[in-house]
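User: Hey, my collaborator sent me this sequence without any context and asked if I could get a structure. I don't really work with proteins. Can you help?
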Amino acid sequence: MESNLPSVYNPKDVEDKWYKFWESENLFYAETDPSKTPFTIVIPPPNVTGQLHMGHALNNTLQDIIIRTKRMQGYSALWLPGTDHAGIATEAKVKEQLAEEGLSKYDLGREKFLERVWAWKEKYGGTIINQLKKLGSSCDWSRLRFTMDEGLSRAVREVFVRLYEKGLIYRGDYIVNWCPACKTTLSDIEVEHKEEPGRLYYIRYPFRDGSGHLTVATTRPETMLGDTAVAVNPEDERYRQLVGKTLILPAVGREIPIIADSYVDMEFGTGAVKVTPGHDPNDFEMGLRHNLEVINVMDEDGRMNKNAGKFSGLDRYECRKLILRELEEGGFLEKIEDISHSVGHCYRCDTVVEPMVSKQWFVKMKPLAGPAIEVVKQGRVQFVPERFTKIYLNWLENVHDWCISRQLWWGHRIPAWYCGECGEMSVSREDIVTCPKCGSSRIEQDPDVLDTWFSSALWPFSTLGWPEDTEDLKYFYPTSVLVTAYDIIFFWVARMIFSAMEFMKKEPFSYVVITGLVRDALGRKMSKSLGNGIDPLEVIEKYGADTLRFTLSTGNAPGNDMRFYQEKVEASRNFANKIWNASRFVIMNLEGFEPGDFDAEKLSLKDRWILKRLNDITKEITEAIEKFEIGVAAQKIYDFFWSEFCDWYIEMAKIDLYGEDEHAKKRTQQVLWISLERALKLLHPFMPFITEEIWQKLPHTGKSIMVSAWPEYNPAWDFADAKDMDVIMDAVRSIRNIRAEMNVSPARKARVIVRIGDSIVGDILQNNIKIIYSLAKVENMEFISQDEPAPHKALTGVIKGAELFVPMEGLVDIDMEIERLKKEYANLEKEIHRVSKKLENEGFLSKAPRDVVEKERNKEKDYRDMLQKVEQRLKMLEGLK
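Assistant: No problem. I've predicted the 3D structure and written it out in structure-token form, which is a compact way to encode the shape of the chain:
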């Protein structure tokens, strides 16, 4: 067979070609085949606004490794793809476009604005899908879903109506997290808390009867315009007698009561706190307990409203300044303290969030959380690693009602309609055009849309056709495993589990594999502000998708962050080149070869050894992937291919391939072919493109490596004597080490004398002497007994059961070598002196950049290590003289 592999591997010649082939042959399609066991993964849907980042690349590489393995193992393996409509993010993109045209969304109106968003989605929404394809993702694209496609929108309505009918969705005045920039509510987990410097203002509230004042402490004096009480702890001896008295609110003049509530922390500030039910979640709860009035003093964009009186129209921070000035002038500002406190920010735009009371839609969480807690406690859903179970349970056991309404236009509009005639509110699966109560056609739909996560929560079953009882749903649900990052356990994982338990009465998946973050080489999170993000598409363009995939696979452990650095990418590229060159060698040496069975009895020791090692790693890699230990599996195939197959077996195979024995040649070809073909299959899920290209050039049956059978452990290959190969390898290493230490030219062949301590070891060495001759550059091996003296002027290597002596005579000119080493010793001493002087120089240490100083320190250490080795070799040579 003539080799068709070019001398150099170029990913660009290979990757697009094979991806098109897989797609055109429909190899990603998963059939509902009753004779097969289903295995399903639903993709965490990337935002339709998204660009592939390193987190996506990691997550989708791991999913693809799992799905490709399962497909080869004979499962009907479905990896179901899709994208999320991403309410806030997508609306923001289109608003930016409009701003460039001098327009706002309100200039267009809802209908026209949504037309623009759909147009944007059609133009740019496929970007991330094409990028996932570049990565090699073997998703079933025929089943591609979008959270706002017709079927998923129907599922969203069905869920909303069912929950509403059960009393689990309600509408009410409630304190919510409000983003004044995005002009929408945020759920608790969409608020990012940051520790920031702030100020604590101590303000005097005078008693109505003129008997003095009560001092309260607050970080937000602008909200005092909405105060409706001051609260103290009922256990606080300082204030017990004041409960029930009336205060005058400074700067406003409103009368407010002093109330007692155990929520108040006696240690905070003065132990007396202002109560603003309209602008603080804890105060809101207190207001409900004490029947306090709720006064909202801000509008949607964070400006003071008419309830703020003379401060109306001011930005909230401008208002703060003016109030403080007025309080100071009136003698009400007692003191100011600098503090550090936690401030909530919008996770999208980083604006400081404003708690605000408004009419919103909520899901009652307690009844839904129960089954979702139980299914994890019972082990029907398992987190990998297990430590994330605690985080999940802790959140669900302390969960608040979920605010699901968002003041946006892009998203699933809430299916509630209000009658302008009689005020009736109706929730319906179908659009309402006339009031079901009074028949009026003055009907308006609720303007708000649902939280993006509401539709994502249904993803494992809505994508398979629910609420219809489709064949896909019956066959592929529940799904098998979810691979996702730890930062969306609450946002998404918990919500999918409770939604599935409510609507499917069955867990959505059996395993949740948590991935960590991809950090930069210094361990920092990749971010725009640091400018340390690495574009996975640039890595693919330069090195190929297989290199990127293997880089992300190695050193990866579930739940742990990983560092991404250039050296690792280059090591993976070198591995791809090693695979290519080794395969090229094998293919070039398969001339006249026909695959067939071999007689195990006629295999040589090296053949039995490589087949046993291949057998062992087949089992180990399969088990590691089963446990989602992808990094372990990647390392095992790397070590086997690079070291055992390439560095050892191929080198040993050359003896028979280039020898006169035709039977030995055919046997070696058979073992080379089977070893390479199996190793490529084990490698395929990690590096799909290069393995397909090589496999297609090997003798094979079937259409593609991706649908070929996964290798299985073969008990017949568990050869007991394969361990004897360790003796040969130890002997070769020992002789190679001596040659390297003495700087022996590769062209010079050594004479070796073996003093036998164990006759079995002696037999193994004698029976495989050709391997030692070839791999250790030996021309003659002489065996002597244990009681014979060691030869003169020879260096010794010790292996288990034997000593190896390599006489230096004829190999090395000892006097010349001593002379060379003395010069090297003198040069190293000079270099050490030079670097030491530099490192003693205070000026250099204080002025040079830290990495330059570090480089010099490393140089000094390396020189000292080299000096020590030269010294040892000189002593050895002097001893030989």
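In plain terms: Residues 850-880 form the longest helix (31 residues). You can pass these tokens on to your collaborator as they are.
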